[in-house]
Amino acid sequence: MASQQKNVWAFRFTTLSLVLIPVAVGINYVGKLFAAALKLPLWLDSIGTVLAGMLAGPWIGAISGAVNNIIFGITADPVSFWYLITSIVIGLLVGYLAMTGWIRTFPRAVVLGLIVALAAAIVSTPINVMLWEGTTGNVWGDALYTVLRDGGTPVWIASFIDELVVDLLDKVITVIISFLIFKALPQRLIGLFAGTDQVEKL
Amino acid sequence: MQNTLYVPGDSCVHRLDPVSKILLTVVGLVLTFVLPGHLLPALLLAAMLVLLGTAGVLRRVWAVFAGVALIAITFFVVQGLVYAGNATPALTLGPLTFYREGLLLGLRLTFRLYNILASTLILILTTRPSDLVESLVRRGLPSRFGYVIIAVLQIIPIMVEAAGRITDAQRSRGMETEGSLWVRMRAFIPLMGPLVTSSLIATEERALALEVRGFASNRKPTFLNDETIPSYAWPVRIAALAVLLLGIAGRVMLS
């Protein structure tokens, strides 16, 4: 197990894994598009990052997250640059936990989703407090923030809860969907990105 | 490439080299957080808008600004109601009382939001993404990562097109995309699954094609075009740094 753990953090920037990054960002983008087209009350805009982490490990997951927010900043919403760190953490965390067995079964994947949601909220809260005194820009979350602050809750805790209610459902469902897609992928593809021995290195 | 914010043009801002524009953006972002009060941030925003106006991209700026107006409104509502320093009632609407201090904080946050946007837009609206990446690769960004950024911009339209095809195909097989939340939720997987699988299979081919063209080579690549840095780049850079120092010095002196 110890040798396997070292493997998880090894840099493997093969051509194949680098080409996976743009695809992951594209999947993020299309996921968001589908969610909007189906009028789902979720964003589902990090499926690609999560899948990249599951397929190619934490580093590629993290880079996918970073590139995603950079590109989204260039193409649509410059504020998303600031949430770069959140995306990087999601990619790293999913990559690491996926490689250490947290996507073996469905219940484990649900737990993984909860961990990711919690981590995303923890990382986003300081950004929200620093930039906007704690609000998130999501109407429902901010309404809750207003109620909590009115009841005397400290800014940091109110902001954390604001972010968590917005993130929780979205991130858990994102991870579950990614897990279902991952399990349905052809074994050959999974082996290809994991760089197992049966595949010749390019 | 219609899916980036870049507005083609030939103004003096467009012709400025990407590195100088990155500097302008960084100076704008730092000043956003350094300048105190309301007047100075307003002046910063005005200066940024003059620059954006010189570049002739104001129409796109307004579109982005309008897109985040809801966030600005929530600042006023939330902080006006519950900001910890609230003391002086300013406005009463039915059961709700808005306080002066909170509304002023809302104004500060709104300036912050729009200053962040305006500073970033100077770089983004007037720089073609490929020029920006090329400029960064010249200065040491590994060219493989340069490829990754450019590839995203090219791959997104292709994947959106594929998404449309998959939606049509699944609909023709009777998949329901309207109805209760559960029905719509269930439709997500048959839409997303084929897209992910097909695009992952395509990555293998793309990786082979890149390898054949020497993508993984460790030789230093040369550039097709020479970099042109306009004569006014250095004066602009020095002026930007001077303004930055002035802002920081002013902040230090005041506090």
Describe this structure in words.
The complex is a heterodimer of chains A (about 200) and B (about 260). Chain A has about 200 residues and is mostly helical. Helices cover about 75% and strands about 0% of the residues of chain A. In chain A, α3 packs antiparallel against α4. Chain A is globular, with a radius of gyration of 17 Å. Chain B is mostly helical and about 260 residues long. Chain B has helices at about 10-15, 20-35, 40-55, 60-65, 70-80, 100-125, 130-140, 145-170, 180-210, 235-255; strands spanning about 90-95, 95-100. Chain B has a two-stranded antiparallel ribbon. Classes of the chains: A mainly alpha (about 200), B mainly alpha (about 260).
Core attributes:
heterodimer, A: 202 residues, Arp2/3 complex 21 kDa subunit ARPC3, 9 helices, 76% helix, B: 255 residues, mainly alpha, two-stranded antiparallel sheet, 2 strands
Largest interface: A-B, 63 and 70 residues
Q: State which percent range the strand residues of chain B make up.
A: under 5%
Largest sheet of chain B: 2 strands, antiparallel
Mean pLDDT of chain A equals 89
> Quick one: biggest sheet of chain A?
none
Based on Cα principal axes, name the global outline of chain A. globular
Number of helices of chain A: 9
Record field, number of beta strands of chain B:
2
Number of structural domains of chain B? 2
**What would the CATH topology of chain A be?**
Arp2/3 complex 21 kDa subunit ARPC3
Structure summary:
The complex is a heterodimer of chains A (202) and B (255). With 202 residues, chain A is mostly helical.
Fold topology:
The complex is a heterodimer of chains A (202) and B (255).
Chain A: H1 2-8, H2 15-37, H3 47-56, H4 58-75, H5 84-102, H6 106-132, H7 139-150, H8 155-184, H9 187-194
Helix pairs in contact in A: 2-3, 2-4, 3-4, 3-5, 3-8, 4-5, 5-6, 6-8, 7-8
Chain B: H1 12-15, H2 18-34, H3 39-54, H4 58-67, H5 69-82, E1 89-93, E2 96-99, H6 100-126, H7 129-138, H8 143-172, H9 181-212, H10 233-254
Antiparallel strand pairs in B: 1-2
Helix pairs in contact in B: 2-6, 2-10, 3-6, 4-6, 5-6, 7-8, 8-9
